[in-house]
């Protein structure tokens, strides 16, 4: 057997490399999904307390440089209401987390995400989905839902992803999601740093995963520029369906194992 590198055996190193590469290819293409893919995969072999803050740092290190290129595409009008709603209700989500088991909530949210994605892939969606992005009330509501779910179960992305990709041009949706998740990552990373999570086991994971994360986001960007509006939107809903299905499977497995 090979010698451990930064405390990781060869099998774990291979998992870190593969999960980081795939996770950030997904983020480079769609603007989201790296946490859902990477944290879900790495938590199979490593403690979540090590994986989550490390992945937040990786997201900042790999996507901060994207902001100059997408700045003019960001829908700042809706983004500010989403951010306000999320900031308002994240503490409420943390209170919910303290009082209930997060696994049933993960199961419910993943099931809803799968159903929404399959609906958007069907021909029925075009008949009922609004033709334009909802106003401040809709954006605030989506942000509040995201904040509650992020605090209670660590899965705040789906309401905001659906909010944008259901009604907004794909390029604007991608840019706005990148900006939104950078904001939420900064807040979460500040909390993780304040609790000492990042100072302990997180840095070795960051060192190993960073090269593969940078390669993944570069490859994802190259794939993104080759997709037109219809292809990108179809890819996003397929990705959300896959993530929803994986989330359902993971939640059921955890509930059965409990």
Overall mean pLDDT stands at 82
Residue stretches low in confidence (pLDDT < 50, at least 5 long) are none
- Strand proportion, as a percent range, falls in under 5%
Number of helices: 12
Helix-strand layout with pairing:
Layout: H1 10-30, H2 34-42, H3 48-63, H4 67-70, H5 76-99, H6 102-121, H7 125-128, H8 136-153, H9 157-165, H10 170-194, H11 198-224, H12 229-257
Helix pairs in contact: 1-2, 1-11, 2-3, 3-10, 3-11, 5-8, 5-10, 6-12, 8-9, 9-10
Task: Describe this entry's structure for a reader.
By secondary structure, this protein is mainly alpha-helical. Helix 8 (136-153) packs antiparallel against helix 9 (157-165). The protein has twelve helices and no strands.
